[in-house]
Amino acid sequence: MDEKIMVNDILASVKSDLSCYQTAISECENMRIKTNSSTNKK
């Protein structure tokens, strides 16, 4: 396999993983905001 293709595959995989982490972090932040706002209303 060509070295350039292998590097591109690795970079694509890393980019995909980072996108998944970004989504997970955003969802966690949204849950924290929702939890804080609901506890503040009580």
Describe this structure in words.
The chain is 93% helix and 0% strand. With 42 residues, the chain is mainly α. 0% of the residues are buried. The termini are far apart. The protein contains one helix and no strands. The longest helix is centred in the middle third of the chain and has 39 residues.
Describe this structure in a few short sentences:
The chain is mainly α. It is built from one helix and no strands.
Relevant terms:
single chain; 42 residues; mainly alpha; 1 helix
Number of helices: 1
What is the 3D shape? rod-shaped
Order of helices and strands: H
| Helical residues, percent | over 70%
Mean pLDDT: 86
Q: Main sheet?
A: none
What's the total number of strands?
Answer: 0
Question: Which regions contain 5 or more consecutive residues with pLDDT less than 50?
Answer: none
Report the β-strand fraction as a percent range: under 5%
What's the multimeric state?
A: single chain
What's the gyration radius in Å?
18 Å
Distance between the termini: 61 Å
Structural class: mainly alpha
What's the layout of helices and strands?
Layout: H1 3-41
